[in-house]
C-alpha cells in the first residue's frame, strides 16, 4: 500500500490531499448550492451540465496548452484557478454568476488534469508510470473517503457555517495541492533508457520543462514543427481508441446512476444498501487498483486488460437484470456481485488507459492527445445516462441484454483498434516500438 520512495510517493500524497478537499465538497455540493446560494435544483443541474460541456469542449485546447507551457506549470495554474473559484462561490449572487464560476472551475480543473498527465508521463520512467498512476488513484480514493466523512460532519451542523466549510475546505485543499505540485522537480527526469531505441526517444535527455517541447533534440521532434492540436482529431485510429474508452467508461454511469436507480425502483433491496454498494467500490479501488494494473506495462498486456474490462461489464448486466426477479438476501448478493464486476471494469480500464494514453502519443503532444480522448469519449457521458436508464429501467429489464451487447461489441473491437493504432504513424513519426513483455 506504500508507494515507492521519491516522486511516486509525493504524487500519491498529493492525490490524497486533493481527495480530502474534493470529497468534503462533493458530499454536500448540491446542498450548498440550493440552501446557501439559493439556486433551484434545476438551475444546479443546468450548471453541472454546463461544466460537463466545458470539460468536453475544452479538453483538447487546454491539453495542448499544457504541452506548450509544461505539465507542472499547467497543473499549478489549474489548481490555483480552482481554489480562487471555490473561494468565490460563497459570494455567488445569482444563477448567471453561478454559471460563470462553475465554467471557470471546470476549465481550471481540466487544465490541472491535463498538466498532471503531461508532467507524470514526462517525469517518470516508462516502467514506473502505470504503477505510480495506480497508487495516485488509490490514494485519491482514500482522500475522498476521509473528505466524505468531513463533509458529512459539516452537513450535520445544519447551518450556513457548516455549508461554508464545505467550499472553503476544498479551496484550501487546492491551494495546498498547488504548493505541493510547485515543489516537485521542475526538470522532469530523463526519458527511460528503454525508450532510447524507440522512434519517439532521442539519445539525449529532454530539457527542462521551461523549454518548449519542440526544442527537443530528437530528429522527429524537429520535423514536427509545433503540430496543430486539432490535427489529433485526424488521427482516426486514436479517435477510434478514444471512442472505445468512452464506451467502456459507460460502466461508471451504470455504477453511479443506473444500478442505484434500478435497486430502489425495480428490486426489494433496502435503500441503505446503496451505501454498502458504494463502500464495496471504494474498498476495491483502494486495495486492488495497483494489483489490477499488473500487465499494463506493454501493448499486449493493456489490450488484454481492455478485453477483461469489457467482459466484466458484459457479465454484470444479466446479474443486475436477475436481481429484479429475486427477493431478500439473494437480491442483495446479486447487486453486490454486479458492483464487484463493474468495479473490476474500472480498475482494469484505468491501467490500460494510463499506459495507452502515455505511450501512444508523441511525447510533445501527450496533453493534446489526452484532451482529444476526453473530448471524443465524453460524448458517451452526455448520451449515456439517459440512454442507459431507458434501456435498463423503462424497458422493464430486458434492456440489460442490449447494454451487455454494447460491451460485448467493445470486447470484440478492442484488439483490432489497438493494432490499428500501433501500426499508424503519428505526424510522420513511425509507430512506437512498444515492448511486448514486462520490464524486469
From TrEMBL:
Its main location: membrane. InterPro entries: MFS, MFS_dom, MFS_trans_sf, MFS_Transporters. Residues 189-228 are annotated as: Disordered. The chain crosses the membrane at residues 16-36, 42-62, 74-92, 139-157, 163-181, 238-262, 274-293, 305-326, 332-356, 376-394, 400-421. The keyword Lipid metabolism does not apply. Gene3D superfamilies: MFS general substrate transporter like domains. It is found in: Cell membrane. Residues 1-427 form the Major facilitator superfamily (MFS) profile domain. It is a multi-pass membrane protein. Keywords: Cell membrane, Membrane, Transmembrane, Transmembrane helix, Transport. The keyword Transmembrane applies. It comes from the Bacteria. Residues 209-219 have a biased composition (Low complexity). This is MFS transporter. It comes from Paractinoplanes ovalisporus.
Amino acid at each position: 500500500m506504500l508507494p515507492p520512495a521519491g516522486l511516486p510517493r509525493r504524487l500519491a500524497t498529493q492525490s490524497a490531499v486533493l481527495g480530502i478537499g474534493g470529497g468534503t465538497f462533493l458530499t454536500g455540493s448540491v446542498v450548498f448550492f440550493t440552501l446557501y446560494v439559493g439556486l433551484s435544483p434545476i438551475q444546479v443541474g443546468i450548471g453541472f451540465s454546463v461544466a460537463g460541456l466545458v470539460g468536453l469542449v475544452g479538453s483538447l485546447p487546454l491539453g495542448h496548452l499544457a504541452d506548450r507551457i509544461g505539465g507542472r506549470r499547467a497543473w499549478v495554474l489549474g489548481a490555483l484557478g480552482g481554489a480562487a473559484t471555490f473561494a468565490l462561490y460563497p459570494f455567488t449572487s445569482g444563477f448567471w454568476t453561478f454559471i460563470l464560476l462553475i465554467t471557470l472551475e471546470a476549465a481550471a480543473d481540466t487544465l490541472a488534469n491535463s498538466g498532471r498527465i503531461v508532467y507524470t508521463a514526462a517525469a517518470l520512467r516508462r516502467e514506473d508510470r502505470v504503477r505510480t498512476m495506480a497508487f495516485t488513484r488509490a490514494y485519491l480514493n482514500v482522500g475522498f473517503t476521509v473528505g466524505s466523512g468531513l463533509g458529512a460532519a459539516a452537513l450535520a451542523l445544519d447551518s450556513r457555517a457548516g455549508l461554508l466549510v464545505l467550499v472553503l475546505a476544498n479551496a484550501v485543499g487546492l491551494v495546498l495541492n498547488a504548493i505541493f505540485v510547485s515543489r516537485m522537480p521542475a526538470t522532469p527526469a530523463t526519458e527511460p533508457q528503454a525508450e532510447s531505441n524507440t522512434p519517439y526517444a532521442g539519445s539525449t535527455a529532454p530539457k527542462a520543462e521551461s523549454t518548449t517541447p519542440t526544442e527537443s533534440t530528437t530528429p522527429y521532434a524537429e520535423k514536427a514543427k509545433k503540430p496543430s492540436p486539432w490535427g489529433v482529431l485526424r488521427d482516426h485510429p486514436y479517435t477510434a481508441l478514444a471512442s472505445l474508452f468512452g464506451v467502456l467508461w459507460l460502466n461508471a454511469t451504470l455504477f453511479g446512476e443506473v444500478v442505484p436507480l434500478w435497486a430502489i425502483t425495480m428490486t426489494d433491496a433496502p435503500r441503505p444498501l446503496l451505501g454498502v454498494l458504494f463502500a464495496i467500490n471504494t474498498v476495491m479501488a483502494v486495495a486492488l487498483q495497483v494489483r489490477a494494473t499488473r500487465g499494463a506495462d506493454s501493448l499486449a498486456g493493456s489490450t488484454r486488460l481492455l478485453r477483461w474490462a469489457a467482459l466484466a461489464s458484459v457479465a454484470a448486466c444479466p446479474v443486475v437484470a436477475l436481481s429484479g426477479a429475486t427477493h431478500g438476501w439473494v437480491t442483495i448478493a446479486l447487486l453486490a456481485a454486479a458492483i464487484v464486476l463493474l468495479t473490476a471494469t474500472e480498475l482494469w480500464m484505468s491501467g490500460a488507459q494510463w499506459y495507452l494514453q502515455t505511450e501512444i502519443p508523441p511525447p510533445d503532444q501527450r496533453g493534446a492527445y489526452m484532451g482529444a480522448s476526453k473530448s471524443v469519449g465524453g460524448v458517451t457521458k452526455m448520451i449515456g445516462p439517459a440512454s442507459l436508464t431507458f434501456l435498463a429501467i423503462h424497458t422493464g429489464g430486458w434492456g440489460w441484454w442490449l447494454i451487455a451487447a454494447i460491451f460485448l461489441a467493445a470486447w470484440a473491437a478492442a484488439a483490432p483498434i489497438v493494432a490499428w493504432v500501433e501500426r499508424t504513424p503519428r505526424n510522420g513519426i513511425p509507430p512506437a516500438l512498444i515492448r511486448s513483455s514486462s520490464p524486469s
